[in-house]
Amino acid sequence: MDALRGQIGGLLAYRDCECGCPSVTFVVNPESDVSTIGDPFATFNAADVERSVILFVRGGRLAALECAYYEDARDEWPPLADLSGSQLT
Predict the structure, then answer these.
(1) Which has the closest alpha carbon to 54: 40, 73, 75?
(2) Does residue 88 have a pLDDT over 60?
(3) How far apart are the C-alpha atoms of 31 and 82, rounded to whole Å?
(4) How far apart are CA 27 and CA 18, in angstroms?
(5) What is the pTM of this model?
(6) Dmax of the chain from CA atoms?
(7) Does position 21 have pLDDT exceeding 60, yes or no?
(8) Residue 74 and residue 77: Cα distance in Å, rounded?
(9) Cβ(25)–Cβ(14) under 8 Å?
């Protein structure tokens, strides 16, 4: 987890989803430490149950943060206080 936290400092994010959601893809500094926890992801469910927030890690690096809508996509993140869910798996 420390390696993932260390990647946040030089993290760049860009939106590349065309559905209208706020999901972002990350570009991590190639000199940052690589996590040894593999390629996990964490899923957090919003209280309104219409969407989930999913953190993807690939090759030991932060890869994307997705806001998956189960109805119509909205250009907003759910409030942090409304999220509940898993640890990295």
Answers:
(1) 40
(2) no
(3) 34
(4) 19
(5) 0.80
(6) 39
(7) yes
(8) 8
(9) yes
* Cα(13)–Cα(6) distance, integer angstroms: 15
DSSP string of 11-47?
Answer: -EEE---SSS---EEEE--TTSPPPSS-S-EEEEEET
Q: Which two tokens stand for residue 66?
A: 């997705």
**Do residues 54 and 41 make contact, with C-beta atoms less than 8 angstroms apart?**
yes
Name the token pair of 69: 């809508």
Secondary structure of residue 48 in the 3-state scheme: coil
Above 60 in pLDDT, residue 25? yes
By the 8 A CB rule, do 20 and 78 touch? no
Is residue 7 within 8 A of residue 27, CB to CB? The reply is no
Which of 39, 35, 28, 31 minimizes the C-alpha distance to 2?
Answer: 35
**CB neighbours of residue 4 within 10 Å:** 20
Nearest to 42 by CA among 2, 3, 4, 81: 4
